[in-house]
Design a protein that fits this description.
122 residues, alpha+beta, Rossmann fold, 3-stranded antiparallel β-sheet, 3-stranded mixed β-sheet, 6 strands, globular
């Protein structure tokens, strides 16, 4: 299976699946701070929502460099607003509109990201 896979589905089905995963993992909407931490048995996860970031330098005020140094999984929404402050991603997840539905694209950018992509698509 290729490291980049595209699947088309209805918005409702995709949203339902994402909501189910988020609920199962205990995720909630990111608050005003722009980051929400989650602690699991064997991994720490930080979920960033950069929608409100007007200037990539704001990540310095969020202490983003500290998160990069932590042994954790970083999930970043609206990553394009982070500019050069963000390292290259391991895995890109992109949702877009397509013919009245939604298109979900997974793109493994690193060896680890490609492995995750292949596992998700298996």
């Amino acid at each position: 299976m290729a490291p980049t896979e595209t699947h088309t589905d209805t918005l409702a089905a995709i949203q339902a699946q994402l909501d189910q995963w988020a609920q199962e993992l205990g995720f909630q909407q990111v608050g005003i701070t722009g980051v929400e931490p989650y602690e699991f048995d064997d991994v720490m996860v930080f979920h960033f929502d950069l929608y409100r970031v007007a200037d990539p330098e704001e990540l310095a005020y969020m202490g983003f460099d500290d998160y990069l140094m932590a042994p954790a999984l970083l999930l970043v929404e609206w990553a394009e607003r982070g500019g050069d402050w963000l390292p290259p991603p391991d895995l890109l997840i992109h949702l877009s509109s397509l013919d009245g539905g939604r298109q979900l694209t997974l793109n493994g950018r690193s060896q680890q990201g490609k492995r995750v992509c292949q596992q998700l698509m298996a």
